Please model this.
Amino acid sequence: MPIVYVTQDQVEIHIEPGSKSPNDFIVKYREPGKRLRTPKHIHLVVDLFAKRTGNLYLTNDLLDHVIENIIMKVFPSTNFPPNLQIFAPIQVEKFQELGRYGEYSAEFLLVITELIMIQEKTNYPDGIINLHLFQKIRNGSDIFSIVSAATFR
Model:
């Protein structure tokens, strides 16, 4: 299973083939000393709630970046493993402080979110579920609405 990125905290981000479409892939990660995990939307949401409690304005800036510069700009992938299309390490500097809150670093969130968005665009080119989820968080929707959107089936 290819490693597509390793964060400064040595979290390995892996990709494995999926089955939803010919170019589908599954995002996984491994923190040092832990097993391989598959991030779920709800994990990201819980972490963003913690970050928002710690620093509302910077978390909103991060969410604006995710919506405007990742979700709205990534495109389907025909490569395996997929390439990061938007992320550059310089983007992390602005959001570094958010690592003090929640479980995940801003670097991890930016890379994982981009890969999840590429995966969505690859399988559902007109899909907007993730866009709506991040907009709900950004707009301060109630917890029930956000969790419902994050745990869709």
